[in-house]
Amino acid sequence: MRTLVLNAWYEPLAVVTFRRALVLVLAGKASVVAEDDEPVVGPGEVFGRPSVILLNRYIRPRFEPSLAVTRRGVLRRDGNRCGYCGKSAHTIDHIQPRSRGGEDSWENLVACCLRCNNVKGNHTPAEMGWKLRFTPQPPRGTTWQIKELERPAADWETFLAPQSAA
Q1: What CATH class has 71-128?
Q2: Of 3, 40, 84, 157, which one has the greatest count of Cβ atoms within 10 A?
């Protein structure tokens, strides 16, 4: 069982085991925001199993300014949707082909379905008459630093929604 840890400003900070979350709550360092259906039965008490906890104090998140480009990261950034046709994507494509000087960068890689990848081949989208559905950019925020958020629990969704800038 995993527990989402939120910073004092409701920013996702980490994913920990429910045991670690329970220790933080019992020590008074965090409070339970959402509980799972299954309780934790101790020798003398029964506790709710925390699925989301909120830290009482703000912790400065470790932010890695340059996130490494990976196939998995590009697919996650693009929501596993092809950048050209919008269908389900299982591979990635270089917008500017590597043979023509294209780099392995967040701005030059896009998720792509196998059909579009094969048809495009060694061409640029402009040569094919294609347009990207969005402009590829590096991912932002601390949510990308937490690898366990690739498969979030159902009750985490409200806490992982993009927050609008005030």
Answers
A1: mainly alpha
A2: 3
